[in-house]
Amino acid sequence: MADHIKIRKAEGTWSVRAGGAVLGESSEALELQEGSYPAVIYFPRGDIAMAFLDRTKKSTHCPHKGDASYFSVVTKSTTLSDVAWSYEAPKEAVARIKDHLAFYTDGDVTVERI
């Protein structure tokens, strides 16, 4: 693994909410710390209500993690574009985040330990 990336089990139970809806809760979430960036919580897909998420055409590339696919959250009143991402075929060094989703929390999405 790149020396500046650390992945560990996130302690406790975590929830993600968007547009007033609980998208998921997990006691199996992972915490990814990359350098000096804030830690990011990755939720197992099985703990997320995927019916609220639509895959978008957006993708990005990280030289350390691989290619990320993006998802919008669709609620009754709004669509939150490209607020979730997943490394569906991550590099071997970060393989633990495969089948997990992370969320941007700088808007209408909240990720918190409960």
Automatic annotation (TrEMBL):
Pfam families: NTP_transf_9. Residues 15-105 form the DUF427 domain. Signal peptide: none annotated. Transmembrane segments: none annotated. Gene3D superfamilies: Domain of unknown function (DUF427). InterPro entries: DUF427, DUF427_sf. This is DUF427 domain-containing protein.
